[in-house]
Write a structure and sequence with these properties.
Rossmann fold; binds flavin mononucleotide; NADH Oxidase; alpha/beta; four-stranded antiparallel beta sheet; seven-stranded mixed beta sheet
């Protein structure tokens, strides 16, 4: 990446971009802004040379920034790149408000924590009533944002694009934009802290690009497992896991539930000194979050994983110490099948919910083959007879992400998802020749602080409603009998 030093800019200065500006480009905006022609066309800051493809490949969203302020000359240069974007009808109805006053940024951060990261937040707005057809206003503003992101990168700065800004009308009011301006996004801008992460991979060109006629099979926009072919689910999960899934951190209350379940259902294997004498197979671990927790909680087990693709299997296996062996399911996968009758424990945590009904049966049958006689199959699943479906419905109702968008986002729900009937799970076990020897239901509830944080952008009414639901769920969790029947997380242990 080129350095943004003044020396670099002097030695590599390219012709000012106003040379040869088409006539229609200089007219309107200059008049509207009351600026001179030179202001509009010439670069206000350094324009370091940088290979286009290099800039394209090395730009990354940066979310950690140095605190130091950014010289306005550099900020102006970034904004200048914005005005060189195309816009619908060449209206150029964008406005950029670069906030570098810490007090104003603090006000923005109160609306969304995302605006509390960078020394500069560029609020990008567009004339609300211009180019509404086909959302061309949003598209024009987006083109400007992408120009600014690339320019910032070439100038040695980092950016990240913020849509989750809370109430955009409040953002507009904080920076004093008039009502007829639509705030499209905010671009956080600053000097990156630390080395850029390795870039998330891109979906292969062959999957997304077509000539003349679309010839692909799209990832379904449906949260219903029945709508997903097995290979599309494999492709989707591979992309989510490898392309930098953000929701790949365990939530404290879910980890606590897992530990409580293990203590009751798999009490052995806590002794790290015992070596890796016992073998555990974790089935469809996806991000491997749960696998890593099992690894920490039961160090006497060597944990292998079985996944749909080699890449996801390797990703999950790398979260265990030592790294587990990798196997494939279904059998068409490029990986070998796990050995039969080999494992003391075969577990599947919240993955049956991803599968259509027939595939659930096939998977439980395969698990019954992989476990050794006298070993245990442990299945964790989300209970249909719990508050799960209601709380998901509420989340959607309050205008938050819902349906496929939400379901596909957080772990463990990576892919289509539907909660399961306890009786259906018991039938699956029986049909696979497994006898259920233990059951446990738990109702983990986030702490009050966590709930307050997660609902901070809700309306007052929905915040209160969420807190009440959490209270009810907490009470429910204190009665083991109720939690067993109504708890969101259900666990069954079955033996061959
Ligand atoms: C329209 C759009 C909205 C985005 N909104 C957010 C956001 O609200 N918060 C965030 O952290 N990142 C946001 N991003 C950044 C993406 O997460 C990021 O571009 C993506 O993960 C790819 O990573 P890369 O930019 O490093 O290539 C957004 C990106 C786009 C294009």
């Amino acid at each position: 990446m080129a350095e943004a030093s003044p020396e670099a800019s002097e030695s590599s200065e390219r012709p000012a971009p106003d040379a040869g500006i088409p006539e229609q480009a200089v007219g309107d905006p200059t008049a509207l802004a009351g600026a001179s022609e030179t202001d509009e066309g010439a670069a206000p800051g350094p324009t370091p040379a940088c290979d286009f493809w290099d800039a394209l490949y090395t730009r990354r969203s940066v979310r950690k920034f140095e605190k130091e302020p950014i010289p306005r000359e550099l900020v102006r240069q970034v904004l200048h790149a914005g005005i060189w974007a195309p816009s619908s009808c060449n209206y150029q109805m964008w406005d950029f408000v670069a906030v570098d006053d810490p007090a104003v940024n603090a006000e923005l951060a109160r609306l969304s924590a995302q605006m509390g990261n960078a020394p500069v937040n560029v609020v990008v707005a567009y004339g609300r009533d211009f180019s509404e057809e086909g959302w061309a206003n949003v598209q024009s503003a987006s083109a400007a944002i992408q120009n600014m992101s690339l320019a910032a990168h070439v100038l040695g700065l980092g950016t990240f694009w913020i849509t989750q800004m809370g109430d955009r009308e409040k953002v507009r009011a904080v920076v004093g934009l008039p009502e007829d301006r639509l705030v499209v996004a905010v671009l956080a801008l600053g000097k990156p802290k630390g080395e850029p992460r390795k870039g998330p991979k891109r979906r292969p060109l062959a999957q997304v690009a077509h000539f003349n006629h679309y010839a692909g099979r799209p990832i379904p926009s449906s949260a219903n497992p029945a709508d997903w072919a097995a290979d599309l689910l494999a492709t989707y999960q591979r992309a989510r896991v490898l392309n930098g899934l953000r929701h790949n951190k365990p939530r404290a209350w879910e980890v606590a539930a897992l530990r409580a379940a293990l203590d009751e259902l798999v009490p052995e294997g806590r002794d790290a000194d015992a070596g890796k004498a016992l073998r555990w197979l974790d089935v469809l671990p996806c991000t491997g979050i749960v696998t890593a927790e099992v690894n920490r909680a039961r160090p006497a087990f060597a944990i292998d994983v079985v996944e749909r693709t080699r890449e996801v299997a390797e990703f999950a296996a790398q979260r265990t110490v030592p790294h587990g062996r990798t196997f494939g399911w279904p059998t068409s996968s490029a990986l070998p099948a796990p050995p039969e009758s080999a494992y003391a424990v075969v577990s599947c945590f919240y993955r049956l919910e991803n599968l259509p009904e027939a595939a659930r049966g096939e998977l439980v049958q395969a698990m019954a083959r992989w476990v050794k006689p006298g070993g245990r199959v442990v299945i964790a699943y989300v209970n249909r007879h719990s508050f799960h479906d209601l709380t998901e419905w509420l989340r959607e109702r309050r205008g938050g992400p819902g349906g496929v968008e939400y379901v596909l986002a957080p772990d463990p729900n990576i892919g289509p998802f539907e909660s399961l009937e306890p009786r259906a799970v018991e039938t699956l076990c029986a049909q696979s020749g497994l006898t259920i020897t233990a059951r446990l239901g738990l109702q983990p509830v986030p702490s009050r602080e966590e709930i307050e944080f997660r609902t901070r952008n809700f309306s007052k009414r929905h915040r209160r409603l969420s807190a009440s639901i959490a209270w009810v769920l907490g009470v429910l969790g204190r009665f083991p009998g109720l939690a067993t029947r109504r708890g969101r997380f259900q666990y069954v242990v079955a033996e061959r």
